[in-house]
Write a structure and sequence with these properties.
289 residues; alpha/beta; two-stranded parallel ribbon; 8 strands; 40% helix
């Protein structure tokens, strides 16, 4: 009996999790990640569903769909990324709540790279002019956060003396210098891409890039959208996002080859060949870079 590699097995488990918690079909058999008004969307989504399993009949609210899909993605990352500890060691946390030790901080302001946003928010609350200039959308909360705590000197010096009081006194990785968690990755989860609201992935990415002090975290999106043209609306462009990951890219490729028109085939190939769209199984390894 062939034993699947850990990520391959986790991908299978992820699909079963999605089938159990998120994917539903109507009485006519239309998957709930398809646009019922688009025959191409329905055909592709139904083919992907057939390839990964069967779904229950039912209806879920948009809010429930989003939250459940986030949970599935969170579980997948927790089942895979820690297995790369030999190439990406560290005390990693992957969750949807984020660190809680910084009192009063919300969203990305809880992390070391974005702690200064608390001062901006406080200043904006006392000045209407400043509030108008800054806006209110710079303190965002990613759907899933991958982060780590700064490292204690005892750990840094475990093999041999590496740091002391004479140098490396400003680096944020060192716990002796500061205590706030470090944001390693922001994962945006989009069950479908149907409206302008889906474009907030780009807006959040720009905020993460522009408002940080220090390195930019990985900024990615995961989606189950079946139409390549809609995936392209957030995948193609100037690279606000590192990459978009599809929950079942191999199955999507097969479905588009069977049912897609020339445009959808070309767009899908452009995104894949241009390294703008990958499979969910690629994500944990890309986060290890």
């Amino acid at each position: 009996m062939t034993v699947s590699a850990a990520i391959s097995q986790a991908r299978v488990d992820f699909h079963q999790d999605v089938l159990a918690r998120v994917l539903r079909v109507t009485g006519e058999g239309t998957p709930n990640n398809a646009d019922k008004d688009s025959s191409l969307s329905v055909a592709i989504a139904a083919s992907v569903l057939s390839a990964i399993g069967t779904a229950e009949q039912g209806v879920m609210s948009g809010q429930s769909l989003g939250s459940s899909f986030e949970q599935c993605c969170e579980r997948f990352l927790n089942a895979t990324f820690p297995k790369l500890h030999n190439i990406r060691p560290g005390d990693w946390v992957i969750d949807r709540s984020g660190p809680s030790h910084r009192a009063g901080a919300k969203g990305i302001a809880r992390f070391e790279q974005y702690g200064h946003l608390i001062a901006l928010k406080t200043a904006a609350e006392t000045s209407s002019e400043l509030a108008a200039a800054l806006g209110t959308d710079y303190i965002i909360k990613p759907d899933i956060m991958v982060y780590r705590s700064p490292v204690d000197d005892l750990v840094l010096n475990a093999g041999q003396p590496v740091v002391d009081a004479q140098a490396a006194t400003l680096t944020s990785l060192r716990g002796a210098n500061q205590e706030d968690a470090l944001l390693h990755a922001s994962v945006s989860c989009k069950w479908t891409i149907r409206s302008d609201r889906s474009q907030n992935s780009r807006a959040e990415a720009l905020n993460l890039i522009r408002n940080r002090k220090g390195h930019v975290p990985h900024i990615v999106a995961v989606t189950a959208e079946p139409l390549p043209s809609r995936i392209a609306s957030i995948a193609l462009g100037t690279g606000d996002l590192d990459c978009v990951y599809h929950f079942a890219l191999y199955e999507l490729q097969h479905a588009v080859a069977l049912f897609g028109n020339d445009d959808s085939k070309e767009i899908l190939n452009t995104m894949i060949n241009g390294k703008r769209l990958k499979d969910i199984s690629d994500l944990p390894l890309d986060l290890a870079i």
